[in-house]
């Protein structure tokens, strides 16, 4: 194992700022309080917590108003964008390293890339699940339905971008591929 991969593994075990289990994040029970918490977490740029607030709101009330839809969209957009940007950088570095004759860094880079792919897949599956289970079936107006269907298309596109590398993505994407034919 390359030296940098050993460092990475030991750094994960001895985190400077330990990752907080987001299940410990105390969420209010009232819809108006969840909206307030979503706005608060957005201001603090704590988008993972913002996603939690909005996920709970969706499960409580599938019919979101315009402000709530925008908060949901903003939460997932910020969570996915940071990971997509990191993934693009890592895959670019991976291509550059693989072009070298002998790269000791490839295991480290590949491991790091897979971590981002797993996170990207999980975020996409989470929002797609909310859209399919709660939001699209409960949508009343045309504008709302179009908003959700566009969002669904965007997240399927993000998912498809990493899907060739994720074996878990295949079962989810196959019905859509067959549907398009």
Task: List the defining traits of the structure above.
7 helices
Outline the structure in words.
It is a single chain. The chain is an all-alpha fold and 181 residues long. The chain has one domain: Up-down Bundle (Delta-Endotoxin, domain 1), CATH 1.20.190. The chain is 75% helix and 0% strand. The chain is built from 7 helices and no strands. Helix 2 crosses helix 4, helix 3 packs across helix 4 and helix 5 runs antiparallel to helix 6. The chain is elongated.
* Count of β-strands: 0
Q: CA-to-CA gap between the ends?
A: 45 Å
Helix-strand string: HHHHHHH
Strand content: under 5%
Helical coverage, percent range: over 70%
Shape: elongated
CATH superfamily: 14-3-3 domain
CATH class descriptor name: Mainly Alpha
CATH topology: Delta-Endotoxin, domain 1
Count of alpha and pi helical runs: 7
Structural class: mainly alpha
Number of domains: 1
Mean pLDDT over the full residue set: 86
Biggest sheet overview: none
* pLDDT < 50 runs, ≥5 residues: none
CATH architecture: Up-down Bundle
Keywords: Coiled coil
Pfam families: 14-3-3
Family: Belongs to the 14-3-3 family.
Protein name: 14-3-3 domain-containing protein
């Amino acid at each position: 194992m390359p030296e940098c991969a050993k460092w990475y593994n030991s750094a994960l075990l001895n985190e400077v700022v330990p990752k907080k289990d987001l299940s410990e994040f105390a969420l209010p029970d009232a819809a108006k309080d969840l909206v307030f918490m979503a706005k608060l977490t957005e201001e603090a740029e704590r988008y993972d917590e913002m996603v939690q607030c909005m996920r709970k709101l969706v499960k409580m009330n599938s019919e979101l108003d315009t402000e709530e839809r925008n908060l949901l969209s903003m939460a997932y957009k910020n969570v996915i964008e940071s990971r997509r940007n990191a993934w693009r950088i890592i895959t670019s570095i991976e291509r550059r390293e693989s072009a070298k004759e002998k790269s000791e860094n490839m295991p480290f880079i590949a491991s790091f890339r897979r971590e981002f792919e797993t996170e990207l897949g999980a975020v996409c599956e989470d929002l797609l699940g909310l859209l399919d289970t709660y939001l699209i079936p409960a949508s009343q107006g045309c504008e709302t339905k179009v908003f959700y269907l566009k969002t669904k298309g965007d997240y399927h596109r993000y998912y498809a971008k990493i899907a060739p590398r994720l074996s878990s993505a295949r079962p989810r994407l196959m019905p859509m591929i067959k549907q398009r034919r």
